[in-house]
Design goal:
alpha/beta; six-stranded parallel β-sheet; two-stranded antiparallel sheet; 44% helix; elongated
Length: 234
């Protein structure tokens, strides 16, 4: 505890508000098959470039998709699409991302309602692009709970840099030392530490407890454990 009451929480989206595997394994399979024009062998080769096994439908632990931005993913794929612009690749990535299925880590409406009842400011900082992020949050019926939503293309940069998190503080008037960053990846937690926030790690992504622990004030199975932890901080 740092003695400052918590007044704000900023969440990562994928792997935090939503289970990572359910969303992005389906996205990767659909995107790769589309990008390969239905050629499954080519889709498998493209999958290797982004750390995704098309046969087993699983990500490698160091996949660029886990914490990278659409621009990062497009950069990795660009050499294999010499006739396609970077912007066109990003557009395709974002279009398929908007269609990706979402599995809530916990039922989000009641969970976020509890946090709102505590007069906390809430935000989302994702390395996904803003448009698909809003699509996912609208589909879950939770956009109205958030005071701030930023994607990697919203003008604040992407994680692990702290720009999005500091943007949340500027927008809400809450100082960083009164905010908790909640995320499933090292990019999330490093961004939180760089912003001067407390950090709450969750295991609904691909990172393990031992990987997150050095960068987190606490690691819990999912965001449903956050209210109890907040009670312990007061």
């Amino acid at each position: 505890m740092n003695g400052v009451p918590i007044r704000g929480i900023i969440f990562d989206k994928d792997g935090t508000l939503f289970d990572f595997g359910t969303t992005w394994e389906a996205w990767a399979a659909a995107f790769l098959l589309r990008a390969a024009a239905g050629d499954r062998a080519r889709a498998a080769e493209l999958g290797k470039q982004i750390g995704f096994d098309f046969t087993t439908q699983a990500f490698a632990r160091d996949s660029i998709v886990i914490a990278g931005t659409p621009n990062d993913i497009a950069d990795a794929l660009a050499p294999h699409f010499p006739g396609q612009s970077h912007a066109a690749l990003v557009h395709l990535l974002n279009e398929e991302a908007a269609n990706a299925p979402q599995a809530e880590a916990v039922p989000l409406v009641p969970f976020l309602g509890v946090l709102r009842s505590r007069d906390l400011k809430l935000g989302v900082a994702t390395n996904d692009a803003e448009a698909p992020a809003l699509t996912h949050l609208h589909a879950a019926g939770v956009v109205s709970f958030f005071d701030f939503i930023a994607g990697s293309d919203s003008g604040y940069g992407g994680k692990p840099a702290p720009g999005q998190l500091l943007g949340f503080c500027a927008e809400t008037g809450v100082s960083p030392d009164a905010v908790v960053m909640v995320g499933d990846s090292l990019h999330d937690l490093r961004a939180g530490r760089a912003a001067g926030m407390r950090t709450f790690g969750v295991l609904t992504g691909l990172a393990t407890q031992s990987e997150l622990a050095p960068f987190a004030d606490v690691v819990r199975p999912d965001i449903g454990h956050l209210p109890t932890w907040l009670d312990q901080q007061s």
